[in-house]
Amino acid sequence: MTDGAARDMPLADDEVRRILASTRTIAVVGWSPNPDRPSHQVAAFLKARGYRVIPVNPGQAGQEALGETIRPDLAALTGEGVDMVDIFRHSDHVPEVVAAALAHLPDLRTVWMQLGVRNAEAAKEARDRGLQVVENRCPAIEIPRLGL
């Protein structure tokens, strides 16, 4: 198996468990104020589980949600100690999100792409920079499944 093939394999449960257990601050890119939207529900779940969750949505920037000021973009999070970026954007938008995360979030350890979200190019870029990458998974499903 080549290194590239190994990188395409899904993360083992132990790795996902370690990521979720060590993460403290999560930027939710594509957060929606609509309580019926998955991004809203997952962010609220993560907040209830003790994570600091910072919503990112340019159309809602400056308003309050989850005890945080909603940010317009990842550049507005410089210095916030973000461990993970949780991406609720179409797969085509992931490269620009990852590029912004790499440029502005020096403490970032994980790029998490939600269910249905994958982008091999962006995943490779993040991995090449030393980050963990989770694709096509949801932390609100993984946390209870893994007993966290």
TrEMBL record:
InterPro entries the record matches: CoA-bd, NAD(P)-bd_dom_sf
SUPFAM superfamilies given in the database record: NAD(P)-binding Rossmann-fold domains
Limits of the CoA-binding domain: 19-117
Coiled coil: none
Superkingdom in the source lineage: Bacteria
Chain segments annotated as transmembrane: none
Protein name as catalogued: CoA-binding domain-containing protein
Naturally occurring in which organism (per UniProt): Cereibacter johrii
